[in-house]
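Aim 2, interim progress: modelling of the iron/sulfur cluster-bound target.
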Amino acid sequence: MNPVVNDFSVRIATPNGTGSQTSNIVIHRALLRMGLAANAKNLFPSNIAGLPTWYQIRVSPGGWQTMAESWQILLPLNQATIGKDLRESAPGTVVIDNSDWKTADSAFEGFVRYPVPFDKLARGIDNAKLRPRLKNLIYVGVVAWLLDIPIKAVREALETVFPGKTEVVDLNESAAMIGHEYASENFTKQDPYTTESADQVGNRILVDGNEAAALGAIWGGVSVVAWYPITPASSLAENLEKHIEKIRDKDSDGANRFVVVQAEDELAAVGMALGAGWAGARSMTSTSGPGISLMAENLGLGYFTEIPTVIYDVQRVGPSTGLPTRTQQSDMLQVAFHSHGDTRFPMLLPANPGEAFSMSCQAYDLAEKYQTPVVFMSDLDLGMNNWICDPLEEPSTDFDRGKIASDEVIARLEKWGRYRDVDGDGIPYRTIPGVTLHPDAAHLTRGSGHDEDANYSESPEVYSRNLDRIARKISGMVVDLPEPILKPGQGDMGLIAFGTTDWAVEEALADMESTPDYLRVRSFPFHQQVGEFLENHESVMVIEQNQQGQMAQLLAMEYPQLAGRIVSKTYYGGLPLSANFVREALQSASEVEAR
Amino acid sequence: MSEEKAPAVNQLGLSKADYKAGASTMCKGCGHDRISEAIIQACYDLGVDGRSVIKMSGIGCSSKTPAYFLGQSMGLNSTHGRMPSFATGAHLANLDMNPIGVSGDGDSASIGMGQFVHMIRRNPKMVYIVENNGVYGLTKGQFSATADRRSPSKRGKFPREESIDLCGLALELGAPFVARSFSGDKKQLVPILKAAFSFDGLAFIDVISPCVTFNNHEGSTKSYTHQKEHGVTYHDPFFIAPKEQIDIEYEDGELQEVTLHDGSKLVLRKLEKDHNPAEISSARSMLMETRDRGEILTGLIHVDTEQPSLAEVSGLSREPLVRQEQGDLRPAAGVLQGINDSFRI
Ligand SMILES: Cc1ncc(C[n+]2csc(CCOP(=O)(O)OP(=O)(O)O)c2C)c(N)n1
Ligand code: SF4
Ligand SMILES: [Mg+2]
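Predicted structure of the complex, ligand included:
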């Protein structure tokens, strides 16, 4: 049997809330310690304890960060799902099961089985109080034996999970050793899967998109944060608070140069963010689909009255509560034209933590420069899963606070008015209450029709002119929005994707002989290159994670004359997109062409 | 040209006209206009620099009024019922500014009830005025949640639901400053507004403000006549600015003093009954008793100068956030390096 080195997925099924998460992370981290760019996806339920959860760790020669559709090693350690877990596994799968459950032998037919009496072994853990939690570490030891993961790597992983707590590390390690010893004494290796240390990681780091975005916000200078808890967005605001308390300099009295408010709901959260933006502070709120829906009316006010703020939408599966712990890119159309009336919101579309950091940081400049709410469109997969990525990069530009109507500016301008298009770019000069003191500066910001001087107006001409100027301003943003990234292929066919879909696309394209030209869109409104890309390809496949092909629809709306070229391929089951889905989609397209 | 008398000016050298703004578009006689006048008077007397005030409102006739007072102040007319959140955000962004929130009974007691409630829990420093007329003026006279069951509409229909007493609710929620007044009683409203401006926390004032177009008819409990006949108060308020020396003639035990955060005082001259607004139990029972008698209690109902404000509990810098610059906000070079290191595998 030829060994299969560093190329497999391990799927671990456990009940939620039993402490198995620590064990899973330890396995993942131990592989990372070996220099392997292992990826882990946490498929968790919307539940605190009891419901099934799966954790899938993948090691691949390419160090891919996507989830594979199949797995080679299964730990069906949830009695409620063991039947299903086994049925879903391919013949030949390596199975490490709990032999104390007396599952019928027939269930394991066709698999390579390593039965472990986990319950009995757990009795060997001295610490009775911690036994239920430590019990999970036994399977870490078995997996380490199976895959030849050095105990040293397991220990190092434990040290990162429990930093500075040697005693806890010792306890956990000895629990893991129970499994390791049992396996080495009782099993002979019957499967090919194994690991070897490698240098797949290099200088790279491991971080999730929410934490990276939170850090980006701090570097972007956010000072008023208002949010309401919701999966998968909560950890963004929570991480922000955790970091900003440590790294934002205090004032000379030791007081905070920021404030974080947990609002009563998302209407209030976005209201506070907009209120702070109106007053002149850099502000943000973070949420997911249900919260974005609630923010609609206030965001319309922000658009029409031209208030800067940043909204983070960590998308999850809708509609309604949908699958709240699963991933999707399904708020695209809603956000693009959020609120009643004619609006158009700039969207940033990060695909990885590096971009989550840089785009989040940039969002504050964009919001202030263009005086509009800017929406950062992430998703659960990016936000809550850990990714190996390049180190976060210090921003290369200084704050751009845009056009501020300071007293000097007002004195200089012949006639200042809050909504006057002085420079012909649609961007007016905004005031900061209490800072702009010029007697002409005072005005009332209102969501009702207003003229160039912010006075109430119902004039059809004034209203249309104002709305057109705002639309022009938003279109003009493209010069500052992240450009699409083109990866040339053989040029016959085009492929468009955005956000986390990128990982699956990149992996699929890597092993294809003839690849399409691939354009990754990174913002809305679209850059000119996007239209040109459609023009230059007879057929352009748009792959995305929602049912209705929302990006495809946006493209068709923006480029109606080219809409016929768009082929929409969608996945919306809520799992992280696999490279296989992309391969099959491209396959089907080339078959259609061949016919 | 005849010789004009120089207009009276306040300590900033500003005339009363400097505190006015655009011409009102309210119906003639609308209670809301009287409240705007009282705000102008209070700010003029206090010598408030209009540029240190931000006027925040929701949606409704009442919420339109910031366009008609303090023309030197900036303001934000937000969405229906959401003034509290916009005001909270603006306040936190710049602690130097003094927010005046103007809302209606529809705006605060129905669609914005959640924000009203949580605003009180949070206790930001601001004046929160509900211009209470028992109806939705702007949408043409539907009952609001403060309409009394026994108060018929113009067409003779009665509300089917129990009314909400915003002062009672505010007390229940622990509001540190609860007052009620009447737009027809400037003598009371102006000193209460001044005290509210001087208060470091949420100063809530429910102002009965008759809607002459939809709710000023006979039988209405929010009409001018009804308030004049059934309004009761337990003291006359006098406002004394810091350092101001005013001698009030009084008999022993007749006066109560409330010292506010900026050193100013609200002196209350007792009328018929003893009511100490510093005592929550007294405030509660006064409110209940008068309500049971079909009376409407006005005046300073409750005050608690000890409650910490939102800015205080947030440990927020006194230097306004809007004045913080890149050097204050962006972590120093090298910090990101340390964070990257912590993410190393
Ligand atoms: C979300 C929303 N729903 C409904 C309305 C319509 N609307 C405008 S003002 C108003 C009621 C205002 O009543 P109140 O706050 O008591 O103010 P008043 O006009 O009586 O001063 C309503 C329902 C709106 N503007 N927004
Ligand atoms: S409708 Fe009523 S509340 Fe509105 S302006 Fe007229 S009188 Fe005032
Ligand atoms: Mg009303």
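The pocket of iron/sulfur cluster (ligand 2) is lined by residues B 26-27, 30, 32, 61, 133, 137-138, 211-214 (CB under 6 Å). Chain B has a mean pLDDT of 95.
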